[in-house]
């Protein structure tokens, strides 16, 4: 007896496509309300971040300046009318010329500014973390008026950066500053703080440390308060000293928080414009400039050079992206999921 089997019905799905809906379509059908709530944020990010970013990258490949940005130059004639002529120096695409000029030192002092920026960033972040960790450890212990101390230590963070910059600049004033007054009181000659590259950079680092320690302290204090107290009690019962408890419990427990705040602190300090610009003003002779302030002076003092400013912006962004990638890889090697 022969069994006859019917041919399967032809599939309506085109070849090469799955019968199931795509993940994106499936997610939209199930969570359309979430997508609708996220959409305004995406639009704002696109307008305020992504468009300026891609626009800046494009401008870095041109020679756009304040002088050649218009296609026509119009002048008023004797009769009161306007006579417009084509701009002979209209901006154009120049490829990698801006990057070559910057990296070879034809415009600005890119490598000198980069070196100063690295010293500035390392010194500030190290002081931020060290002082913040010490203050957080102190405030994490039971003590009288602990709440008052916390408020007082957070105050520098609440003061606008430009106000703090002007205050510290006056403190380091050669003739009327408090710093030289204290030195004179103990028999030391006054110091011309802004006449030397390293003393000028020192004043900026002190100012930035005063501003940045409160954030680091608050972040690390919050991390300490998430560490279970039972770990310290067990270690104390086992005879561990205070230093051993700090090294083997506190520091490992703070690793997720500390790795994040170090990264954020590095990015913020690398781009910290107002402190250098207002405190040292690049003195002496531009030797204390960092990348962001040097780029500003090179691009906007005199005729505004938009393409040069964009070039510096792309280079600074590239440096920070490379640092972030290597930083993330280093964390992964240590077992951190980030």
From TrEMBL:
Region of interest called Disordered, as start-end residue ranges on this chain: 1-22
PROSITE patterns: ABC_TM1
Main location: membrane
Residue runs in coiled coils: none
Keywords: Cell membrane, Membrane, Transmembrane, Transmembrane helix, Transport
Keyword Protein biosynthesis (UniProt): no
Membrane protein topology class: Multi-pass membrane protein
Entry superkingdom: Bacteria
Record's subcellular location: Cell membrane
Entry's transmembrane regions: 32-54, 110-136, 148-168, 198-221, 257-279, 306-327
CDD domains hit by this protein: TM_PBP2
Domain ABC transmembrane type-1 positions: 114-327
One Pfam family it belongs to: BPD_transp_1
Family from the record: Belongs to the binding-protein-dependent transport system permease family.
Protein name: ABC transporter permease
């Amino acid at each position: 007896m022969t069994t006859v089997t019917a041919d399967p019905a032809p599939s309506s799905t085109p070849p090469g496509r799955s019968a199931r809906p795509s993940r994106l379509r499936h997610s939209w059908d199930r969570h359309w309300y979430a997508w609708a709530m996220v959409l305004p944020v995406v639009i704002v990010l696109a307008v305020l971040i992504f468009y300026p970013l891609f626009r800046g990258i494009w401008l870095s490949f041109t020679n756009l300046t304040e002088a050649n940005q218009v296609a026509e130059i119009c002048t008023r004639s004797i009769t009161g009318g306007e006579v417009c002529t084509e701009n002979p120096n209209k901006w154009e695409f120049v490829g990698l010329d801006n990057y070559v000029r910057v990296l070879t030192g034809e415009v600005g002092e890119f490598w000198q500014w980069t070196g100063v920026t690295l010293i500035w960033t390392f010194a500030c972040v190290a002081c931020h973390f060290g002082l913040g960790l010490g203050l957080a450890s102190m405030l994490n212990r039971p003590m009288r008026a602990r709440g008052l101390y916390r408020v007082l230590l957070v105050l520098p963070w609440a003061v606008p950066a430009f106000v703090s910059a002007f205050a510290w600049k006056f403190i380091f004033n050669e003739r009327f500053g408090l710093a030289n007054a204290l030195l004179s009181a103990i028999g030391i000659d006054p110091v011309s703080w802004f006449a030397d590259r390293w003393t000028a950079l020192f004043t900026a680092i002190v100012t930035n440390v005063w501003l940045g320690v409160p954030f680091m302290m608050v972040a690390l204090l919050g991390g300490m308060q998430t560490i279970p107290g039972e770990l310290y009690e067990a270690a104390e019962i086992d005879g561990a000293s205070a230093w051993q408890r700090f090294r083997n419990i506190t520091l490992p427990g703070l690793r997720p928080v500390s790795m994040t705040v170090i990264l954020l602190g590095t990015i913020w300090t690398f781009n910290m414009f107002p402190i250098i610009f207002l405190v040292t003003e690049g003195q002496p002779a531009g030797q204390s400039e960092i990348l962001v302030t040097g780029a500003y002076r090179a691009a906007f003092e005199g005729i505004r050079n938009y393409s040069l400013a964009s070039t510096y912006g792309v280079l600074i962004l590239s440096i920070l992206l490379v640092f972030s990638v290597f930083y993330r890889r280093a964390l992964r090697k240590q077992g951190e999921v980030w």
